[in-house]
């Protein structure tokens, strides 16, 4: 897939300095640019590379003025970083713009789908499934009975969506995701054996949610596990039954959230965080990586540690943690002196 400088400038509403007909077919870092590649310059510390890069086209800010000869064609824009991101988004849309139903595919006669659909080979679409417009379902995807999928959704290869799940508009579900598996519900009987508690609820994912590769979202025991609008989930996250995650919250990889916990809006949760069940975490909470959360958390708290402490208190305490051996020695020396003076 090739693009000319004229085409790219048209997409970005930029001005060309150089050859308008030069073509690119790949992307590169500015310091690693080669012929046929497109790059950008946004950070001033990389400015020196623009004079040596072999990239055919470089996106720069309009304020950039060259101090030496250039071999690369420039496209000048208001904000090089934002424009490059816009171009990446456009490129992904073009690259992922597949349509049609490949063979073999199992598509239940009772299912329905909108326009612009793509279903990759070896996918399974169950009974009474409803799929919106411009949905892309890549190969080896399983979609169980009674699932509802909105418009402009991308489901990458190998994802599994169990029955009764609901996915909103403009969502992305990456490879290896499992949505709607049973929650971890078992009850001990009089003999100490664990009997499974039926998980009869579902998962609801609202609009504009991204679910990273290998993430699992369990169905509710009763009711719904809910991922609210705008949530962004990294790879390999475990979300247990009846959890609710508020709008625009972002969660990094390997975090685990136990059952029935409610997380508020606009939270930021670092990697490998562990959160116990049946608690409430407020809005705009920030939790540092590898923290353990075992209590309710108020709005706007910043936490670190396991069990997690207030972030400022943790940092003050850490100064003493790392000096504990020296502090213990000092205390013991003081005790000796006191005992010798008795």
Question: What are the SSEs and their pairings?
Answer:
Layout: E1 3-4, H1 5-12, E2 15-17, E3 23-24, E4 26-27, E5 37-40, E6 57-61, E7 73-77, H2 80-95, E8 100-101, E9 106-107, E10 112-113, E11 118-119, E12 124-125, E13 130-131, E14 136-137, E15 142-143, E16 148-149, E17 154-155, E18 160-161, E19 166-167, E20 172-173, E21 178-181, E22 186-188, E23 194-196, E24 202-205, E25 210-211, E26 216-218, E27 224-227, E28 232-233, E29 238-239, E30 244-245, E31 250-251, E32 256-257, E33 262-263, E34 268-269, E35 274-275, E36 280-281, E37 286-287, E38 292-293, E39 302-305, E40 308-310, H3 311-321, H4 324-341
Parallel strand pairs: 4-5, 5-6, 6-7, 8-11, 9-12, 10-13, 11-14, 12-15, 13-16, 14-17, 15-18, 16-19, 17-20, 18-21, 19-24, 20-25, 21-26, 24-27, 25-28, 26-29, 27-30, 28-31, 29-32, 30-33, 31-34, 32-35, 33-36, 34-37, 35-38, 37-39
Antiparallel strand pairs: 1-3, 2-7, 22-23, 39-40
Counting DSSP E segments of at least 2 residues, the number of strands comes to 40
Number of helices, counting only DSSP H or I runs of 4 residues or more? 4
CATH topology tier name of the largest domain: UDP N-Acetylglucosamine Acyltransferase, domain 1
N-end to C-end Cα span: 88 Å
Shape-level CATH architecture of the largest domain: 3 Solenoid
Rounded mean pLDDT score: 94
The CATH class of the largest domain turns out to be: Mainly Beta
Number of structurally distinct domains: 2
**Helicity level, as a percent range?**
10-25%
- % residues in beta strands: 25-35%
Tell me the CATH superfamily of the largest domain. Answer: Hexapeptide repeat proteins
| 3D shape | flat
| Main sheet strand line-up | 8-11-14-17-20-25-28-31-34-37-39-40
SS-derived structural category: alpha/beta
Biggest pleated-sheet summary: 12 strands, mixed
Unreliable runs: none
Write down the Rg: 27 Å
């Amino acid at each position: 897939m090739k693009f000319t400088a004229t085409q790219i400038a048209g997409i970005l509403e930029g001005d060309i300095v150089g050859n308008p007909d030069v073509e690119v077919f790949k992307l590169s870092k500015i310091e690693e640019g080669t012929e046929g590649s497109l790059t950008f310059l946004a950070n001033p510390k990389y400015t020196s590379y623009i004079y040596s890069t072999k990239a055919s086209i470089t996106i720069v800010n309009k304020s950039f003025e060259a101090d030496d000869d250039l071999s690369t064609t420039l496209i000048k824009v208001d904000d090089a970083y934002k424009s490059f991101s816009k171009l990446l988004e456009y490129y992904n849309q073009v690259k992922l713009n597949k349509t049609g139903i490949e063979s073999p595919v199992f598509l239940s006669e009772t299912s329905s789908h909108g326009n612009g659909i793509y279903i990759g080979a070896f996918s399974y679409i169950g009974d009474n499934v409803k799929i919106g417009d411009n949905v892309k379902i890549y190969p080896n995807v399983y979609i169980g009975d009674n699932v509802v999928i909105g418009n402009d959704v991308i489901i990458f290869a190998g994802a599994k969506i169990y029955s009764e799940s609901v996915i909103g508009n403009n969502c992305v579900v990456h490879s290896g995701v499992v949505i709607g598996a049973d929650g971890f519900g078992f009850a001990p009987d009089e003999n100490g054996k664990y009997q499974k508690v039926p998980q009869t609820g579902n998962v609801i994912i609202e609009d504009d949610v991204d679910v990273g590769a290998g993430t699992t979202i369990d169905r509710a025991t009763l009711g719904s596990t809910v991922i609210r609008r705008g949530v962004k989930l990294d790879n390999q996250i475990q979300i247990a039954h009846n959890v609710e995650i508020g709008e625009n919250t972002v969660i990094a990889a390997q975090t685990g959230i136990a059952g029935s916990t409610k997380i508020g809006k606009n939270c930021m949760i670092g990697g490998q965080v562990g959160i116990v069940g049946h608690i409430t975490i407020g809005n705009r909470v920030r939790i540092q990586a590898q923290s353990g959360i075992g209590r309710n958390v108020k709005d706007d708290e910043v936490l670190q540690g396991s069990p997690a402490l207030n972030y400022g208190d943790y940092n003050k305490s850490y100064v003493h943690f790392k000096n504990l051996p020296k502090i213990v020695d000092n205390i013991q020396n003081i005790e000796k002196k006191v005992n010798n003076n008795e």
